[in-house]
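Reopening this ticket.

The earlier resolution said the output was attached, but the attachment link was broken on my side. Pasting everything inline this time so it's all in one place.
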Amino acid sequence: MPRFTGRRLVAAAVAAFGLVIAAQGTAAAAPKPIEATFGGYGEWNPDPYGGISGDSIRACDTSADGWGIEVKLDIGRDGTWDRVASTRGHNSPYCSPWKGGNIKEGTPVSIQVANVNAGVTYPKGSLLLSHA
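Inline output:
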């Protein structure tokens, strides 16, 4: 009887370990939402996931309040916005297409999400520091 119990314990431990590894891989690959100050959010997708290319951003406006959402990506954190996704000119609810392009793995990036209306940007909004 003890041998049977030991085998069951080992099998359960191996199965649990496999689930932990699988769950971590799935969670790491999903796009990361970044909240705007109000009325929407941006998304950062560092790795390919569900048909979305890696190193991609998009903007989503969820509130018909006259304000849009803009997401900017700074590759290398050098102060230059290299990629922009925006909901400007679209009625809410609306998500922009994903804007992507390959970035070398491990490169530091900044993603800024802000509310925009015509030429006005509502303070800085949210900022995410990440890596490609």
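Reporter confirms the inline version is readable. Strands lie at 32-35, 40-45, 56-61, 68-75, 83-86, 94-95, 108-117, 120-121, 126-131. Residues 88 and 118 are 8 Å apart (CA to CA).
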